């Protein structure tokens, strides 16, 4: 039996936020501002998926493809034909809602993983019976194969977000430990860089550890940008360790974020 903390209950509350009247009362200029700001937030949210867990983005795309082809009501008929009970289909909807609400398969408060409250073979049956799968089986098969095991995995390390052997993180490479994180923080502080916008990758360089810091940025060239007298990028020696700072992490999405923020401005 799986501990109930790793499931979202079928009777969990879902609140609909109705913005229709509030939006109607805005001026045309205010409506444009709200629209462009929401688009920037949408593309920024996609980065959150990539920063939550290795599988979150693929699960998101899998669900998006399913729900873009069929409404929940239509999918319910598909689920029944595929052998799912009403409770199992409700568990599927709750899992999807949880993934959208948290932008990943870990709770944004508590960092605990949650898995679907229905058997894996039942979820697979629904995925394969969906219109999205029928129309594009190759792409859907690839998404399901790459994420299905991790969707349900509750191996000790995968039960929560954390560093090293204590959990899953995409902010650090898998060989990083707490000492590496603390060293990197001291380096970033010395360069006046925020750790919130970075990822850290550790590799061996001739027997000595080398750390690559990737800055989330629409700009991909390692040059000085607005607000900098000189570039923060390059190779540095810090506490007898090598650090390399590069721009351009998540650049395709960051370009979208910047574009819509400029439109909002």
From TrEMBL:
Q: Does the keyword Hydrolase apply?
A: yes
Q: What keywords appear on the UniProt entry?
A: Hydrolase, Metal-binding
User: Which Pfam families does UniProt cross-reference here?
Assistant: Peptidase_M49
Q: Does the keyword Protein transport apply?
A: no
Q: Which PANTHER family match?
A: DIPEPTIDYL PEPTIDASE 3, DIPEPTIDYL PEPTIDASE III-RELATED
Q: Supply the name of the protein.
A: Bifunctional diacylglycerol diphosphate phosphatase/phosphatidate phosphatase
Lineage of the organism: Eukaryota, Metazoa, Chordata, Craniata, Vertebrata
